[in-house]
Amino acid sequence: MNAWFDIGFMAHGVLNLTPKESYTLCEKGAIIIDVREEYMNSFKMFKVESLIYLPFSEIEQLYSELPKDKPLIFADAVGLKSRESVLFMNSHGYDNAANMAGGIVDWEKDGLPLTTDITNRLSGSCMCQLKKREKEIGRRGEGEKKV
């Protein structure tokens, strides 16, 4: 364990927390860093007091703006990009980072607080293929396509 976290489990060099452990730590001042890309974090969002959106695609450019004096819990849809984020942070001198295993999928399964915006629903056959739903504009006639 590291000095910032007294719970969780180590796996392949990364400290992992369950969503319930993450929520408990958020109530004590930890910050969730949501690394999902913008189109993925608009439908279902973690409902906690301290939350920072930092898409994985921007982490290399913006990581130095994250606080070093608070526990940071990296989260995504299922815990894959967030794990990579923790490895990146650790390699750049941050010892206050942990991964939320299971991401928002397990967060929701555990009944933890969410904010949902149904106007930003996603579609796809699995979590790895989610994308914004296409919206129809007007009536579709011959030659018209969904936009």
Outline of the structure:
By secondary structure, this protein is of the alpha/beta class.
How would you describe this structure to a colleague?
- The protein is of the alpha/beta class.
- Helix content is 23%, strand content 22%.
- The N and C termini lie far apart (49 Å).
- The model is unreliable at 125-130 and 133-147 (pLDDT under 50).
SSE topology:
Elements: E1 9-11, E2 14-17, H1 19-26, E3 31-34, H2 38-41, E4 44-46, E5 51-53, H3 59-62, E6 72-75, H4 81-91, E7 97-100, H5 103-109, E8 114-116, E9 122-123, E10 131-132
Parallel strand pairs: 2-7, 3-5, 3-6, 6-7
Antiparallel strand pairs: 1-2, 4-8, 9-10
Number of strands: 10
Question: If you average the pLDDT, what whole number results?
Answer: 83
Largest sheet features: 6 strands, mixed
Q: Give the distance, in angstroms, between the N- and C-terminal Cα atoms.
A: 49 Å
CATH architecture type: 3-Layer(aba) Sandwich
Task: Give the name of the CATH superfamily.
Answer: Rhodanese-like domain
Instruction: Estimate the global geometry from the Cα principal axes.
Output: globular
What are its keywords?
147 residues, six-stranded mixed beta sheet, disordered C terminus, alpha/beta, Oxidized Rhodanese, domain 1, single chain, 23% helix
